[in-house]
Specification:
heterodimer, A: alpha/beta, Rossmann fold, elongated, B: alpha+beta, seven-stranded antiparallel β-sheet, four-stranded antiparallel β-sheet, 13 helices
Chain lengths: 617, 422
Amino acid sequence: MKDYMLFDKNTEAVIYGYQRNAIQRMLDFDYVANREKPSVTAIVNPTALKGGLHKAFIGEREILIPIYPTIADAMKNHDKIETMVNFASFRSAFPTTMEALDYEQLRVISVIAEGMPERYAKEVTAKAKKIGGKILIGPATVGGIVAGAFKIGNTGGMLDNIVESKLHRAGSVGFVSKSGGLSNEANNIIGRNTDGLYEGVAIGGDRYPFSTLTDHLFRYEANPEIKMIVALGEVGGEDEYKIVAALKEGRITKPIVMWNIGTCAGIFKTEVQFGHAGARADKAAETATAKNEALREAGAIVPESFESYDVVIKETFDKLVAEGKHKPIPLTEAPAMPMDYAKALKDKVIRRPRNFVATISDDSGDELAYGGPYGSERSMTITDVFKNDIGLGGVISLLWFKKLLPTWATKFLEMAVMITADHGAAVSGAHNAIVTARAGKDLISCVVSGMLTIGPRFGGAVHGAAKYFSGASDAKKSPVEFVTEMKKAGINIPGIGHLVKSVQNPDQRVTLMKEYAKKNFPKTEILDYALEVEKVTTSKRNNLIMNVDGCIGILFTDMMRSSGEFTDEEMQQILDLEGLNSLFILGRTIGMMGHVFDQKRLKQPLYRHPMDDILYY
Amino acid sequence: MAQRGIREFYGKRMLAKYLPEYLGGKFGYEGEIALVDENTNWDTLAKENPWLKTKPLVAKPDQLFGKRGKHGLLLIDKNLGEVRKWIDERMNKKTKVGKITDSLTHFIIEPLVKHEEEYYLAIKSNVTGDTIYFSTKGGMDIEAVWDTVSEIDVPASTDIETIDVAAKLPAELDDKKRKLVSKYIKGLYKYYADLHFAYLEINPFAMSGDNIYPLDMVARLDDTALYECVEKWGETDFPPPFGRVMTKEEAYIKSLDEKTGASLKLTLINPEGRIWTLVAGGGASVIYADTIADLGKAEEIANYGEYSGNPNTEMTYEYTKTVLDLMTRTKHPKGKVLLIGGGIANFTDIAKTFTGIIKALNDYKDKLKENNVKIYVRRGGPNYKEGLRLMSDLGKTLGVPIEVYGPETHMTKIVSLGLEEN
């Protein structure tokens, strides 16, 4: 490649920083520019310790681009890479650019970050000069583009704009500006008034850019493909006077249209810092007006105002053509770019059925919501959850039933969780968790091994009790009738019977819940019925009392019915979904975790069951 | 983000605290300096700075402007009571300095330093590195004796120790002083570079024996280096330039600007002006203001401002409301022009930013009509067609005329349209 060229159609780049969008935009440009090979050969992602692969599109085809943790790795593996687009933050832009300069193969380096300290920018420039043969662009820039060949990062904006501005194929105009923001506008102006851009560079708005307007103008002067030059300078700095000098010395001979922005600076009462760090006139010569006059006098084509910038560009180009110095390059059609799925969806060009439906919570709104989609009537934001102090019971109510039950009901849910939280180390759930903990397993394995014992025999009576008692009560069977029927069917009544507790030695947990329900529930139909049944069963044996599982199941049913918040179908659904066992599972998880922590703190060894406790038969 | 001036107070404090590190020891100046603003408690101040009561004092404003002696704002060789009276008389008073009028709000007090010589020293950042300027003719007007100034260039990435500073100093310095001055310059340069100064001028600095004292100091820091210097810069602030008084509305936009990653800027130039702009992009906004001025209507420009960096709908709404509110306060017999301009955006969703603007325009519907406002729109970029359609539709219902243009029309065409037709 010639020294005056920035890139050609074969230029390969490494991107420093994992900028997925910028990478895809470069590859999209490659596609419309009909490049043979993608322009992005490697990515450096300093946070990817072992590297990896990045999946990206070329047209509708997908490719994999290697990711490396260091510049050195990328260089070692790809000797054809000759340019780096540095997306490092303002903090790391300096060290990474200094490092990149050490690689001979990196001829062009662009630095995108805004906010590199001026001292460091100058050190980068000094190092590059010492090494020689390097072209640096930046800092604080969008970069630049060689039409139809290579695009730095996000230059040129969206793809349709790139094609509309004819950037997918080479024209004959060289453009340079400080501003990256205006380069799109300039591409548009050049695209509409000439045969299009050959190359455009935005050097960045900092006070001490690595390369100056003049540096690039000299390359344009040397490049025979470039027939005319368009430039945009601004108030502040004196770089533009180098152009004046170059024009006077005959070092720039191609027609150059230039305008310096900031002629309005005089209207401000005090010094105003425009968008760019360098855009501030420290002396008269640095004003835009002085620069415009000096350039005009030196032979540049300077319009009266930006208003006629487009007109003079057109005139200058047409003159070249009329004088036979240039034959306009015909426009070629860009291949149509397949539309991005996400964009098509957003533009409602296509529709897609969702694979998942979620109706109990929503994290896609401004803040997390429980109970339904964010903003819906039935949902509550996490802020309101605390503002209204709905408690754990309220959260359970929202997430399980998609409605906020009255406080007496949510308090009951909390009570059930608290009461079932643990029942000592001997019950099967805790026991399993303990044995697993002692086998040295992790927390979730221990808890799961305990939870897996929950079922028809352990904790399952909650569900059964609700089912049978509510069924019998609804059928208006007398308690004696119910007990007799169950006996005949050979079914132990779920929720009745306790190993140790009895009428004389009641289970305090049951007593507490009964008292709570009597005091706070609007109605306790099933409980009342169950207590009648209990009278029958305890007359047979005094330990056939209502147990804790039974009590929860029965009261849960009473709660649902008397709240008036559930339809019959909803209540049936909750029963079918094991909605009642869920309270026990939730509560007991707390206890099982406690047991696991306990065993691990006590550093208990592997449990082995004593041999003499096993009957080998 | 750029080079920004700091108060002399903080500059001298920093110098006293950190320069010894670069000189290998103290240099006489102890940072005896006190800052006074309207909230200063004089008793506390005197307690914290006992020298205030024992030494003859010097006082002057500390608001980023120089030549304070020339403007009669320098008090020399007075006691604390006299200094306090002098400051109290001037505190919060509108004062004309050169062409600019603003309130005096910050003053510094220092002990008077008895000295023999007054030297001039400045270090200035430039394209290739830094240049050190030194003269033995320090004092108020260095420009008048500029031919006595020695210039020492320090290219970027150069160790100052490799430069023979002593040899480049003015001939009139004797060997002892030459050595001493050279040592100070080298230390000061390292300090300047490490702390990311962009400009440092001490004029004059006094020599007394082996010690130096900065009498008057001007400094600018490169504020992009904050991430490296946050500790050493300490509580240093970047005050607005003297004469830059912010209106309530400007301050409000500034507060919005600081709240978001997007950029929102507003400067009121002439509240009675007829031409108001609502422009996207730093570069484009300057071009619009330029073009209005270049077409001979500078005196009618009401505001300068810009929004960029993809502000959300809420932000563009607030921004537009602020501009419309200012715009519709006083009627003009010839009516007013609002230019909603911008170049071709890279990635900003035009329809989205316009949604906020449209909402604000609707809010001000009646006032816009009362003020006989005509609106011109020009914009390009992602989703611009939809954005322009929204604007055109608004034109049918708003009751004030809206002309809408896209990228096919030159960016500043709406300026001439707006000026010619109205």
